[in-house]
Amino acid sequence: MAASAGGLEAFTQLLKHLLTDTGMAFVLIQHLDPNHKSLLSEILAITTQMPVTEVQDGVTVEPNKIYIIPPNTKMILSNGVLQLTPREKVQGKYMPGDAFFTSLAADRGHKAIAVVLSGSDGDGSLGLKAIKAAGGVTFAQCENTAQFDSMPNRAVATGNVDFVLPPEKIAEELANLSRNPFISGSLPLIAVEKLPEQGDALATIFVLLRSQTGVDFSHYKPNTLERRIQRRMLLYKLERLEDYTEYLQNNPSEVKALYEEILIHVTHFFRDPEAFEVLKERVFPTIIQNKSAELPIRIWVAGCSTGEEVYSIAISLLEFLSDKVTSPPIQIFATDISEIAIEKARTGIYAENQMVEVSPESRRRFFNALEGGGYQISKAVRELCVFARQDLGSDPPFSNLDLVSCRNVLIYLGETLQKRILPIFHYSLNPTGFLLLGTSESTGKYSDLFTLIDKKYKIYSKKLTGIRPTFSFITSNYPIVKVDESKPTDENPSDEFDLEKKTDQLILNRYAPVGVVINDKMEVLQFRGEIDLYLKLLPGKPSLNLFKMVRQGLLMELRATIYQAQRQKILVRREGLRIESDELSKIINLEVIPFNPGTDEEFYFLVLFEQAPPTVKNVNTVNPESLEQPDSERENVRLRLEIATAIQKQAATQEYLQAVIQEQEHINQDLKVANEEILSSNEELQSTNEELETAKEEIQATNEGIGSKFRGRDLFR
User: Fold this and answer.
1) Model confidence at 92: pLDDT above 70
2) How many CB atoms lie within 10 A of CB 602?
């Protein structure tokens, strides 16, 4: 458990409600004054019957005991032993929570539990990611019970918190977890040792994942799937795989959650810093040796996660080229199977505690500090990188590459996928290209395709082979569109009058706002109420595109509102929009509500129009009292209204243009990736044609040889 300001009250509340026989050990990490003796142990000992001690270096952790970090120390867990070292700053701050959580994840794996309580900084949020990646469980104190909510709120913002609860409820959940066989038992709940058979619960899970996400996980390593499925079962207190399968079938959102959980992203800047030094010393010099000023350096980062690896390689390459007289262009292609990770990588925004391995010089050169905290990679570096979603198991690769980086991806993939991917990397590289893998990975059975350059950091060069490795480009497994089953018709419909339904319809017609239902292509699917004031059909070829039907004055505001709802998947409301007509100046309130009608990924949008009380423009209908105002005052009021309207329209226009620019940037990146895939396919076809031409010539030569033999026989006859 980690806390800083206000942590004493949170610790006390939690321990008061915590059972004393859970079989768990509790380690409390608080930011303590380094110059004074801590009284935390004595204070907390009053609130619980469990033994509370301040840690001494080398203490072995025991169940049903509470351990307190001493002042001015950094504490980690290694092989069940608590180890103390002098505390050290991370980006100018002390982060003892992150340090302990990370070591806890490595030491205890799926039995690790992390709790972030009241505090005024971001400590612990980075360590939660390691806990979740190891299969552990994470908690954060809810905002309304924390004296200082910055620390738990930042933890929640990472998306790595499983439970957000008050301290007493956290204590209750900890007791529940202590009785769960996944935590307390030595045997796993499930054992994935081989591919499931048809009809098996695990096979059903694979089908659900593939139908909703388009990804076939049946060839991933069993222990990866086992750990992720068990963790989800633990959160829902399910002990049988069949029960979890049923839960997935009844809750499509959980399929998406499991998908993202399997793709948990564990990465950071300059992971294994020495590997990047080897790139500068041995790889980059070879790459630029034969490069002209026009021929670009081409790099592919496969499984790029949230972008740290991509930007680390880009920064290293830019630093290497900084003292060169001429530098070739740089193209870095970064792909990942997770849309969420790709979106974060594109923005290039990272918290302070994610920048630990970035030197002050690199931070100054390649990052921009943000006002609200954190950093964003500079636009110049972002423009070198093209991000796209890609499934290594099915989508086409890039070609003519100088370097392929695929670190800590193969360790999650089964042998079948590895057999496909490694030959693809060999195909993608130039004759002098390099392959960079994770320190726990190797080329395995495909060592004949690559030459080992650095054993420790797993850097390989492409080996020219006489026999081309065989592989195929197959189409992606896009989500399966489910055909709606025909609903059974009522053979004996009731002729009775439905009073309740009729009454509801009358109320809706009288009081409900008018609106339309549209899809993500802006096509109107349904009209609700009298929409003539807001929409109209234009002469010529009929179109149900909303933007072609909307009346003048609403288009820009409507575009911006729908775009925001579309991007953020939240209700968006705008008030005080003005529509001018002959006699009246109408004030409109606009509301866009996104909703998912079924189990597919497509969202629909309900666009509601509300008419506020009108402001009258005809002088004959104006309140007589207002006529007593001087002409100058009335003119001032009119001008202020016009200025306010103009400012409002300008703001809406700017917001929409910004949205269009962002969308265009994403489209441009997707087009670049599509172009590369087309070029790659063309090269493969050209290579195939050359092989066919060679085979044709060989057959022709063989035929000529056979023909000459027969002609020789005829001469002798």
Assistant:
1) no
2) 11
Residues 58-69 pLDDT 10s? 999 999 999 999
Side-chain-side CA neighbours of 503 within 13 Å: the count stands at 3
Q: How is 504-548 classified by DSSP, letter by letter?
A: HHHHHHHHSPEEEEE-TT-BEEEEES--TTTB-PPSSS---BHHH
Q: Please, how many CA atoms are within 13 Å of residue 393, restricted to the half-sphere of its CB?
A: 20
Angle CA 665–667–673, to nearest 5: 105
* C-alpha torsion angle, residues 682, 686, 687, 689 (rounded to 10): 140
* Burial 182-199, CB ≥16 within 10 A → b, else e: bbeeeeebbebeeeeeee
What's the distance, CA 544 to chain centroid? Answer: 34
How does pLDDT run across 332-378, given as a tens digit for each residue?
A: 999 999 888 999 999 999 988 788 889 989 999 999 998 877 899 99
Q: What's the rounded mean pLDDT across residues 270-294? A: 89
Q: Cβ distance 513 to 610 under 8 Å?
A: yes
Tell me how far apart the alpha carbons of residues 675 and 653 are, in angstroms, rounded to a whole number.
Answer: 32
Number of residues written out for the chain? 717
Where does residue 649 fall: left (phi above 0), alpha (psi -120 to 50 degrees), or beta otherwise?
alpha
Strand (E) or helix (H) holding 278: helix 273-278
At residue 708's C-alpha, the angle toward residues 702 and 710, to 5°, is 105
Comparing CA positions, the residue from 400, 379, 301, 306 lying closest to residue 344 is 306
CA 385 to chain centre: 17
CA separation for the pair 169, 164 (Å, rounded): 9
Are 44 and 69 a contacting pair, CB within 8 Å?
Answer: no
Buried b (16+ CB within 10 A) or exposed e, 637-661: eeeeeeeebeebbeebeebbeebee
The pLDDT of residue 691 is 67
Write out the two tokens for 685: 């076809």
